[in-house]
Predict the 3D structure of the following.
Amino acid sequence: MDITFKTEEGRFNYRACAIILKDSKILAMHDERSPYFYLPGGRVSLHETAEQAVLRELKEELCIDAEIIRPLWLNQSFFTEVVHQERFHEICLYFLIDASKTGLFSRGESFTLYEGKHTNKFEWLEIERLRDEYFYPEFLKKKIFHLPEHLELQTEI
Protein backbone atom coordinates (compact mmCIF):
# COMPACT_ATOMS: atom_id res chain seq x y z
CA MET A 1 0.00 0.00 0.00
CA ASP A 2 1.46 3.35 -1.08
CA ILE A 3 1.78 6.05 1.55
CA THR A 4 -0.64 8.52 0.04
CA PHE A 5 -4.05 9.73 1.03
CA LYS A 6 -6.60 12.18 -0.25
CA THR A 7 -8.66 14.65 1.80
CA GLU A 8 -11.03 17.45 0.89
CA GLU A 9 -8.06 19.83 1.19
CA GLY A 10 -5.75 17.88 -1.10
CA ARG A 11 -3.47 14.86 -1.32
CA PHE A 12 -0.47 13.80 0.76
CA ASN A 13 2.34 11.78 -0.86
CA TYR A 14 5.52 10.23 0.53
CA ARG A 15 7.91 9.64 -2.37
CA ALA A 16 11.49 8.67 -3.22
CA CYS A 17 13.21 9.87 -6.42
CA ALA A 18 16.43 9.14 -8.27
CA ILE A 19 19.04 11.62 -9.44
CA ILE A 20 20.91 9.83 -12.24
CA LEU A 21 23.64 11.89 -13.92
CA LYS A 22 25.68 11.27 -17.07
CA ASP A 23 27.95 13.70 -18.96
CA SER A 24 26.40 16.89 -17.49
CA LYS A 25 22.90 15.51 -18.10
CA ILE A 26 20.14 14.28 -15.79
CA LEU A 27 17.73 11.47 -16.60
CA ALA A 28 14.15 12.73 -16.63
CA MET A 29 10.88 11.20 -17.74
CA HIS A 30 7.26 11.91 -18.58
CA ASP A 31 4.29 9.78 -19.50
CA GLU A 32 1.01 10.18 -21.38
CA ARG A 33 -0.53 11.96 -18.37
CA SER A 34 2.19 14.58 -17.87
CA PRO A 35 3.30 17.35 -20.25
CA TYR A 36 6.25 18.11 -17.93
CA PHE A 37 9.43 16.20 -17.10
CA TYR A 38 10.02 14.68 -13.66
CA LEU A 39 12.47 12.24 -12.10
CA PRO A 40 12.25 8.45 -11.95
CA GLY A 41 10.88 7.25 -8.63
CA GLY A 42 7.55 6.99 -6.93
CA ARG A 43 5.58 6.53 -3.77
CA VAL A 44 7.01 4.73 -0.79
CA SER A 45 4.91 1.78 0.37
CA LEU A 46 3.89 1.14 3.96
CA HIS A 47 6.67 -0.70 5.87
CA GLU A 48 9.19 0.09 3.10
CA THR A 49 12.20 2.35 3.49
CA ALA A 50 12.76 5.22 1.07
CA GLU A 51 15.94 3.44 -0.07
CA GLN A 52 14.00 0.27 -0.86
CA ALA A 53 11.33 2.31 -2.64
CA VAL A 54 13.68 4.19 -4.96
CA LEU A 55 15.50 0.97 -5.95
CA ARG A 56 12.16 -0.81 -6.50
CA GLU A 57 10.88 2.06 -8.65
CA LEU A 58 14.06 2.01 -10.76
CA LYS A 59 13.54 -1.71 -11.31
CA GLU A 60 9.87 -1.15 -12.29
CA GLU A 61 10.37 1.94 -14.46
CA LEU A 62 13.84 1.38 -15.97
CA CYS A 63 14.37 -2.39 -15.51
CA ILE A 64 17.70 -1.76 -13.76
CA ASP A 65 19.34 -2.81 -10.50
CA ALA A 66 21.16 0.38 -9.53
CA GLU A 67 22.98 1.43 -6.38
CA ILE A 68 22.41 4.36 -4.06
CA ILE A 69 25.44 6.62 -3.65
CA ARG A 70 23.89 8.87 -0.98
CA PRO A 71 20.75 10.78 -0.08
CA LEU A 72 20.77 14.43 -1.23
CA TRP A 73 17.60 16.20 -0.20
CA LEU A 74 14.49 15.72 1.85
CA ASN A 75 12.06 18.06 0.10
CA GLN A 76 8.81 19.25 1.62
CA SER A 77 6.65 20.68 -1.12
CA PHE A 78 3.24 22.28 -1.31
CA PHE A 79 1.89 22.70 -4.84
CA THR A 80 -1.06 22.42 -7.18
CA GLU A 81 -0.48 19.82 -9.89
CA VAL A 82 -0.96 21.50 -13.29
CA VAL A 83 -2.89 18.78 -15.15
CA HIS A 84 -5.56 17.84 -12.60
CA GLN A 85 -5.38 21.01 -10.48
CA GLU A 86 -5.09 18.86 -7.36
CA ARG A 87 -3.40 20.37 -4.28
CA PHE A 88 -0.49 18.38 -2.85
CA HIS A 89 1.56 18.19 0.32
CA GLU A 90 4.48 15.98 -0.59
CA ILE A 91 7.54 14.68 1.20
CA CYS A 92 10.20 13.31 -1.14
CA LEU A 93 13.69 11.93 -0.55
CA TYR A 94 16.08 12.43 -3.46
CA PHE A 95 18.93 9.94 -3.86
CA LEU A 96 22.05 10.18 -6.00
CA ILE A 97 22.16 6.92 -7.95
CA ASP A 98 24.98 4.96 -9.57
CA ALA A 99 23.61 3.33 -12.72
CA SER A 100 27.00 2.84 -14.41
CA LYS A 101 26.86 -0.97 -14.22
CA THR A 102 23.26 -1.35 -15.47
CA GLY A 103 23.47 -0.75 -19.24
CA LEU A 104 21.27 2.34 -18.85
CA PHE A 105 23.84 4.67 -20.43
CA SER A 106 23.83 2.67 -23.69
CA ARG A 107 20.09 3.20 -24.34
CA GLY A 108 20.61 6.49 -26.16
CA GLU A 109 19.67 10.11 -25.49
CA SER A 110 15.98 9.23 -25.30
CA PHE A 111 14.09 5.97 -25.05
CA THR A 112 10.64 4.62 -24.24
CA LEU A 113 9.70 1.87 -21.79
CA TYR A 114 6.32 0.50 -20.76
CA GLU A 115 5.18 0.04 -17.18
CA GLY A 116 1.82 -1.69 -17.10
CA LYS A 117 -0.59 0.50 -19.07
CA HIS A 118 1.73 3.54 -18.96
CA THR A 119 4.21 4.64 -21.61
CA ASN A 120 7.26 6.20 -19.97
CA LYS A 121 9.46 8.39 -22.15
CA PHE A 122 12.95 9.02 -20.78
CA GLU A 123 15.36 11.70 -21.89
CA TRP A 124 18.81 12.88 -20.82
CA LEU A 125 18.37 16.62 -20.23
CA GLU A 126 21.31 19.02 -20.27
CA ILE A 127 21.72 20.32 -16.72
CA GLU A 128 22.70 23.74 -18.08
CA ARG A 129 19.35 23.97 -19.90
CA LEU A 130 17.23 22.62 -17.05
CA ARG A 131 16.04 26.13 -16.13
CA ASP A 132 14.36 26.35 -19.55
CA GLU A 133 12.70 22.94 -19.40
CA TYR A 134 9.15 22.19 -18.26
CA PHE A 135 10.52 20.22 -15.31
CA TYR A 136 9.53 19.52 -11.71
CA PRO A 137 10.55 19.88 -8.95
CA GLU A 138 11.48 23.52 -9.45
CA PHE A 139 14.11 23.59 -6.70
CA LEU A 140 16.35 21.23 -8.70
CA LYS A 141 16.79 23.78 -11.47
CA LYS A 142 19.22 25.57 -9.13
CA LYS A 143 20.26 22.96 -6.56
CA ILE A 144 21.41 20.38 -9.14
CA PHE A 145 24.60 22.42 -9.66
CA HIS A 146 25.65 21.94 -6.01
CA LEU A 147 25.02 18.41 -4.80
CA PRO A 148 25.25 18.27 -1.01
CA GLU A 149 27.64 15.90 0.72
CA HIS A 150 25.06 15.26 3.45
CA LEU A 151 21.27 15.14 3.47
CA GLU A 152 19.74 18.64 3.31
CA LEU A 153 16.22 19.74 4.18
CA GLN A 154 14.57 21.65 1.35
CA THR A 155 11.14 23.32 1.41
CA GLU A 156 9.23 24.34 -1.72
CA ILE A 157 6.10 26.41 -1.24
In short: The CA atoms of residues 44 and 69 lie 19 Å apart. The chain has a mean pLDDT of 96.
